[in-house]
Design a protein that fits this description.
By secondary structure, the chain is of the alpha+beta class. It has eleven helices and seven strands. The protein has a four-stranded mixed sheet. A three-stranded antiparallel sheet has the order 4-6-5. Helix 4 packs across helix 5.
Length: 239
């Protein structure tokens, strides 16, 4: 029996389909179809056609869908499965977004720390930018969901790694969260917590003041009392 080569679909960073170690070249409409099914799951043909080609009439949308399917059936068979009324991505196709979501759920619902020692593990734990340069409404919606999940994962990991005294990894997680969303207070709070756990009080105060300046310049507001109270009397002592 011939062993089936792995099929891996990547949606973080850029769209890429691998069959074994070989990149499969796919035209734009077939890429969009596979990405949609990977993110939205099993759907009716009419729903998929309307979502992917919303600016044309139903007849043209269905024609575009048939063309996208025809290419995949010829050049990447058994990746998209069909019935007369429905479409779905085959279960044997590995999708990086699915792996990220499974790992994110583990991080957020258990106390077990994932292995972040190898660079290849980083992306499947903390995710990445979903399909940058794609502006479809269905992509934006999924991008927002992943954005918030990533931040929760990074903040949770920063806290747990600091508690385990893995300060370098904790700092990397906290800094990544701040980089993703500089105005998010919970991200700054995780960074300050790491500095305090490591005994770097001055660095924690410096980060607090940096965030205060950003908030004032961007929004004209101050950090919440919850963040300020983390530093206790340290702020007044260092004035």
């Amino acid at each position: 029996m011939t062993e089936r080569l792995a099929n891996r679909l990547s949606l973080f960073g850029c769209w890429q389909l691998l069959h074994g170690r070989h990149i499969v070249e796919v035209p734009a409409r077939s890429r969009r179809l596979m990405a949609f099914l990977a993110l939205r799951g099993r759907r009716s043909r009419a729903f998929v056609a309307g979502a992917l080609w919303p600016d044309v009439d139903e007849h043209r949308a269905q024609a575009s869908l048939r063309a996208a399917l025809s290419f995949l059936h010829r050049h990447a068979p058994e990746l998209v499965l069909t019935t007369p009324s429905e479409l779905w991505l085959a279960e044997h196709v590995s999708v990086d977004v699915h792996t990220f979501r499974l790992n994110a759920n583990r991080v957020l619902t258990s106390q077990t720390l994932p292995d972040l020692s190898h660079p290849s593990r980083w992306s499947i734990i903390v995710g990445g930018d979903l399909l940058p340069g794609w502006y479809d409404d269905w992509v934006r919606l999924e991008r927002d969901r992943i954005h918030h999940t990533r931040l929760h994962v990074l903040e949770t990991l920063a806290c747990r790694l600091a508690e385990a005294e893995s300060f370098a990894q904790a700092l990397e997680c906290a800094l990544t969260a701040v980089e993703i969303d500089p105005l998010r207070e919970s991200a700054r709070r995780s960074l300050i917590q790491v500095h305090l756990a490591e005994g770097n009080t001055v660095e924690a105060v410096r980060e607090y003041r940096r965030f205060s300046s950003i908030l004032d310049a961007e929004l004209g507001i101050k950090p919440t009392s919850q963040l300020t109270s983390m530093l206790g009397t340290t702020l007044s002592q260092l004035v």
